[in-house]
Amino acid sequence: MESTTLVAPDISCEHCQHASEGAVGQLKGVRMVKVDIPTKTVHIDYDPQQVTLAKIEEVLDDTGYTIAK
Ligand SMILES: [Cu+2]
């Protein structure tokens, strides 16, 4: 199990939280996803055998929340 925290600067409200948590949460291999609105961070626990970080970032980007590098 891997754990990571991504920064998505476009997260600004509860709608963003629910949209991004919903999108990432649907991915197979994602065990936990938690958005913190004030810090615009997405904390994710995932199984790297089932899903890659690149895939998670792609889904967030598709949902409208591009990850800051
Ligand atoms: Cu929002």
What does this structure look like?
33% of the residues lie in helices and 28% in strands. The protein is built from two helices and three strands, in the order βαββα. It has 69 residues and is α+β, with helices and mostly antiparallel strands. Helix 1 packs across helix 2. The protein has a three-stranded antiparallel beta sheet, with helices on one face. A hairpin with a 4-residue loop joins strand 2 (30-36) and strand 3 (41-46). The longest helix has 12 residues, at 14-25.
Q: Brief description of this entry?
A:
This protein has helices spanning 14-25, 53-63; strands spanning 2-7, 30-36, 41-46. The chain has 69 residues and is an alpha+beta fold. Helix 1 (14-25) crosses helix 2 (53-63).
Topology, please?
Blueprint: E1 2-7, H1 14-25, E2 30-36, E3 41-46, H2 53-63
Task: Please list the strands of the largest sheet in the order they lie side by side.
Answer: 1-3-2
Sheet having the most strands: 3 strands, antiparallel
Task: List low-confidence stretches.
Answer: none
Provide the β-strand percentage band.
25-35%
Mean pLDDT: 98
Structural class: alpha+beta
Roughly what percent helix?
25-40%
Q: What small-molecule ligands were found?
A: copper (II) ion
Helical run tally: 2
Radius of gyration: 11 Å
- Note the overall shape: globular
Distance between the termini: 22 Å
SSE arrangement, N to C = EHEEH
Please count the beta strands (DSSP E, at least 2 residues each): 3
